[in-house]
Amino acid sequence: MPTRGGAAKWTFPARDPMFADLIFSILSCKEEYHVADLSSFMITNRWPAQHPDRIQLYSLPTPNGVKASIALEEMELSYEPHLVSFGTDDQMTPEFMSLNPNNKIPAIIDPDGPGGKPLPLFESGAILIYLAEKSGKLMPADPAARYETIQWLMFQMGGVGPMFGQYGHFFKFAADKVTESYSVDRYRAETQRLLKVIEARLEDRDYIMGDFTIADIATFPWIRVLGGFYEGADDLGLDSYPNTMAYVARCEARPAVQRGLVQPPRD
Fold first, then answer.
1. How many distinct structural domains can be found in the chain?
2. Lower CB density within 10 Å: C or N end of the chain?
């Protein structure tokens, strides 16, 4: 309480434990709510962090890029998106390659990583697993189901992504550069084979694991691009995979997915 006369002075009810706890909490705020210093990361020279307390996302809305942004939206994690433009070869700059020497999106820096230290991370599959474990969301708690989810995530990483991407390349972008049909035929057949695997998996469930998980975040963007950006719906006969097409529509209808599909915003 303030004393009478002269400058105000305060005496503290030292024997009041509740008051002591309050003072301790106030004095601890500075340490508890510290803002990470990301200046040691070269990438922040090109893409400065306006909110260094948030996860920094370096990406582009492609089938690979949206995996990270959709996960961040679904898991309700605060993040700051930075556009890595392929049109200006941003992914080839020294700043971006200081974070991912393989010059691929997405990549992140979590200012509050393990032990409270900043964590840089690239490879979309690794990012999805990390964010799921950090948030405790979109990954089953049961150990067997967890490994099954990772199994289907690896199915996308090793099969769906590379094969669908090669199909799109040769079908849409290299059609005037390849004089024979071997390349398109090969990747069309492999894409259709993988679609059959997905179609069978979705026969009796809404999502790959029944509930929506990181396996779905990894997989459905690559399916939707087949009939969208790649314009291969008729060539692949996508109507022959009704479970899969309904699955894509189901994923697209999720509000968090809709937000994540357009992050970072294109210029």
1. 2
2. C
